[in-house]
Amino acid sequence: MSLEFVCPTGGLTFAVRPQASGPALMCVSGEYGDKDGDKVRVLILPAPASGVPSPDPSDSNCRDGEVVGQVWCVPNVPVPTCTPAGTALVVYGWVFDTAPVNPYDQSAEFTGQLRATGGNDCCAGCGSGSGAMMAPQFAQAAATLSAGKGVRVTVPDGPDAGHHSAAPTAQLTWQARVGTAVCEVKLCPTDGLLVRVDGKPVEATDVQYEPVSALLPGTVFGATGPVLVSQA
What we know:
Layout: E1 4-7, E2 13-16, E3 24-31, E4 39-46, E5 63-66, E6 71-79, E7 87-96, E8 106-114, H1 135-147, E9 151-155, E10 162-170, E11 173-178, E12 181-188, E13 192-197, E14 200-202, E15 205-209, E16 212-216, E17 227-231
Parallel strand pairs: 2-8
Antiparallel strand pairs: 1-3, 3-6, 4-5, 4-7, 7-8, 9-10, 9-17, 10-11, 11-12, 12-13, 13-14, 15-16, 16-17
């Protein structure tokens, strides 16, 4: 198994946190199945890439992490430039035992968005299991939903029985109209799968992320059985 980035992942937008002083920071996590205890060095630079990046530890923007099991996470990775409107970035990764050498093992281009709170935060659950989702779990679910046909709401009975397709309205956010109600489904890195009906939160149960699915109380849509939210 080669080095893989799971947060950030290519083509998506992720939060970069401003600091009181120094560069903004974010976390980088991934998977590597070759050997437990190997080290991973990461470096974030502006995109598009210019030349071959150096894993030299004298570069103050390099940060190291360690593979535990088959996952790894590197916190506090400096982001040399980023704006609230979004900045094209590229992350590089090297796997090493004693010292990393080029060529790099993996790279991924993504968009970094400078914001103090909110957004898709790769530090959510980074290496600790805190929060509703681990960063690799979030990245896998996000990639699956983004690459697929989105989300579907299935009402088992009642006046609005049937499958209701949810259309994307924002990144990792979908809306379905069920009768006169609007059901919004959002995948959040810190809180997992969030559901709102007409703007009001609805508690989901039996939430799964591989594949993505959850159950809602049927009474929300006038049904007697549970409502299924799933990837289409």
